[in-house]
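Bug: token stream looks shifted between consecutive jobs. Job 1:
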Amino acid sequence: MKAIPLLAVCAISALVSGCVESVSGDAVRATESSTSPRSSYRDKLSAELRKQLDRARELQKVDPCSLIDLDAAGRLATITSVGTAAKPINCEIEYQVPQQPATYPDEGLSDVPGLPRLLQSGQRYSVTGGTEAVDHVGSMCFKRLFTGYEDAEGKEMISYSLSVSGNAIGAQDPTPRCQDLEPLVNASRPFAAHPTLRADSRRLPQSKLMNVDPCAVIDALSGQPKVEISTPIYPFSCAFKPEGGTKRSITLLFEEADAARRSIEPAKSGRSSVNKYLDLLGAQATISASGGDCMLIAYLDLDRPISGSDPLSQKPWIPKVMVNAEDENASCPKAVEAATEVVRLYKEAK
């Protein structure tokens, strides 16, 4: 995780590449008969990069909803749902927002502005010179807690944010509710210090994909003399570049089931002029290419949506893999190679 000024953290994307470290030697796919406890690519990394990689994979095992005092969260307003976000590092709590007549009668009803709408927690950042002071951007209030973990990138913080219901387009942003978020985060400190496991969560959909180390794809790139791994390393993602090759990044995500079906259908039926459909070891996928950049999205078990087991966590999700690759070939073989390997790892995961 890269050291950044605290005020810049909201603008950082989980796919931003910074420094790189080379993994020397031929990458060889691990076999079932291998007795090595780690993927071969890890053995050639520096101790510092292994530490960062271990931290990222450790965070994949954490239930982000366990970082929140749910009783304190429930005192803000009526909770309608608790569960994962599209980025599995995050937990989202949605609130019921009362409605009122819209400004124009033909628009029906609109949300009453300025009330708690969405609480989110789980995202990690490394900062230098940061504090735990509450802050806001527009109508969104946020506060971060130091976790006690530190590496060469900086001191790790967990982010909490509270968004409020808004006005019509063009209206002034509602006042952020930092007076609600700050005591909630302070009440959540003991929860953040002792998170529980994703595997034990009733709030999260349980998917084998979230157990996959996306950097393990490197071991399938046989014949590569060197592979550079980009830092910072984030949970559920990996960015790398074979020597003499081009960059590829892998991100593990969720997508709401209805949205996933809508995304795949035009490509599958041949109606899309942008996305092409393909089958990756049984996973349905779309791929698009533009200006030497390829994006492949593979949906795993599209016909079997998953959800949490808690009554407030019933939103159906589909696990998905997003691969971005630099490739002048419009058929995007580099993205296909990486995505196929992730699907294979998913099928082999326990």
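Job 2, same session, no restart:
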Amino acid sequence: MSSKSLPAYLQQILENHVAQSDLVYDDELKVIMERLHKLNDSVEKLKANIRQRRVEQAKNEPR
């Protein structure tokens, strides 16, 4: 499975459709892309927090 988040994957798909002239990069698509970018940033921050917590939990577990 890909390590990309769903918002990043959706951005990539939309960019491919624009490149293939299936979609026009207009104001509406620009807003969608900006929102997907912000959502992806949030997802990546949450993933980093989860990874950090797992590392901390592993350090605190008795061996």
